[in-house]
Amino acid sequence: MHAPRMRGKIITAAAFFAAGGLALTGCTAGEDTNAEPTNNSVEGNQSEGETVVIGFSGPAADHGWLGAINSAATAEAEKYPDIDLRVAEGTNDANLQISQVEQFINDQVDAIVLLPTDGAALTDVAIRAMEAGIPVINVDREFSSPFAARATVLGDNYGMGVSAGTYICEQVGDQPDAVVAEIAGIDALPLTQDRSEGFKDALAGCGLEVTNRVSADFTVQGGEAAASQLLAAAPEIDALWNHDDDQGIGVLAAIDAAGRDEFIMVGGAGSANAMREIESGDSVLQATIIYPHTQAADGIRLARLLAQDKAMSDLVEIEVPNRVVLNAPVVTSENVDEYLPTAFES
């Protein structure tokens, strides 16, 4: 038997926000401190409940970060004997992903964790799932309506740009004529636009701006082609931000082929190979900005809490938050040892 669904809690917009007015009552004199764990205590969260069926669908793992997203989600589900995880085949076809979610609805799963290949395209089917009483946890790429998800887990794309720009300001901000270059990901994606906006805003704080910019596609081949184009157009560069460490393999190959080493480079996402480059001290790559590959794993954990009518033990609030935005820290040679053990392989 599946845990009962909270249909009344996830259909209306008011339910997304009304929980903010709730509070826990403190202990009073004479209260039984040996009472059963509450729904947001550590013991209550970890205790095995009724089995919940969670459907997970994401894009095709065509680069290391997405592969890490999928493996981390599966590994998280395996920690809990009360999770029955149903994983749809990864796809970059929005119509196929829509059909996968429709199958989850027909199967009456208890929750859906969805990293959409296109947030806008998957919004309607996510709303249908919500209307069917199935909580949807939106990961990484946002839907276009607040009615499409009970909870959303995001990396901080704007914050990534801010972190990259702030680091470059610290390194070359005392050079008013510094040439700053940028190799973005897929320009059509809002996440790429957010990263570039944050980068621009942070650079403005030290009087710099992006002088040369190209976009790639998160792949090694795309990164190499875009970097070759950029290097040919910019004979002198002081600092370069590459949005993605997977495409960064190709970017570094193009830099090596061109024999260029006059600039510092900052990566993005936080892959293990990028961190090893930083650790070596022999590369133009001096830093990378974390974009957590744990987002879907976090989504799995939140889905379990929602389906079992539990909450987050580190919050006083007695319901799972509507929105969780993860941090975008800078990894350098000074702290790489802290991040390398849990980094993903490109």
From TrEMBL:
Which residues are the signal sequence here?
A: 1-29
Subcellular location, in the record's words? Cell envelope
Q: What broad class describes the main subcellular location of this protein?
A: other
Pfam family example for this protein?
Peripla_BP_4
Domain (Periplasmic binding protein) ranges: 54-310
Q: Which InterPro entries match?
A: Peripla_BP_I, SBP_2_dom
Query: What family name appears in the similarity comment?
Result: Belongs to the bacterial solute-binding protein 2 family.
- The molecule here is called Substrate-binding domain-containing protein
